[in-house]
Design a protein that fits this description.
five-stranded antiparallel sheet; 2 helices; globular; mainly beta
Length: 203
């Protein structure tokens, strides 16, 4: 019973909807699955989704600075000077890069196309540098304690490094104009100061 309570406690605190991408929107026009519920890209495209994983482009081998960013609105606005534990479970695919970052914003980010964003709130480059490259193709979960400025309502995940500053390691020789992906299957944002989320009337 302790394990069950612990699991519920963790879920109750999480301010990310559909944090493990299990709920999928359905496009009625095409009678097909679309993006995971509550999640969008910063660009107009639909994220790659298969087998409970979401894939985003972190590099195109020929077109410069092609990027995609997963984005969702948090269930509650962040409070200034409060700490939040942000956990992301992800893996590389055919190309390993040196940085996956997180941007927290007070406004929804809307891009006209898949393009580079800068000024991440933080990134996992230091943690990734301590993990052997071949292990980065397997699932890994990294954490970061973020101290909020206040008013952050949206979270974006992706690569915020330009092609020039991005370090890359390819599994095979890169093909021209090929998109390279990173895959995610869980994103948590836990307010460390709360035992449970407030009711909707208290937001």
């Amino acid at each position: 019973s302790i394990a069950i309570m612990s699991s519920y406690h963790h879920f109750a605190q999480n301010i990310v909807a559909n944090h493990n991408f299990v709920d999928i929107n359905k496009c009625t026009e095409h009678n097909a699955t679309c993006a995971p519920e509550a999640w969008l890209l910063a660009s107009p495209n639909i994220p790659l989704h298969k087998n409970g994983e979401v894939g985003i482009v972190v590099l195109n081998s020929s077109a410069p600075n092609i990027r995609q960013y997963l984005q969702t609105e948090l269930l509650m606005e962040m409070e200034a000077n409060k700490e939040y534990k942000i956990s992301i479970r992800f893996r590389a695919d055919d190309c390993i890069i040196n940085s996956i970052g997180v941007k927290l914003s007070d406004a929804f980010v809307c891009l006209e196309k898949d393009q580079l964003l800068s000024n991440a709130s933080f990134d996992f480059s230091k943690q990734l540098s301590n993990i052997k490259k071949k292990k980065q193709r397997k699932w890994m979960e990294l954490d970061y304690i973020y101290k909020a400025q206040g008013g952050e309502k949206f979270i974006l995940i992706g690569c915020f490094n330009s092609d020039k500053s991005q370090e890359r390691s390819f599994k095979k020789n890169p093909l021209p104009y090929k998109n390279y992906y990173y895959f995610f299957d869980k994103i948590d944002v836990i307010p460390t100061y709360l035992d449970a989320l407030p009711s909707e009337s208290e937001y």
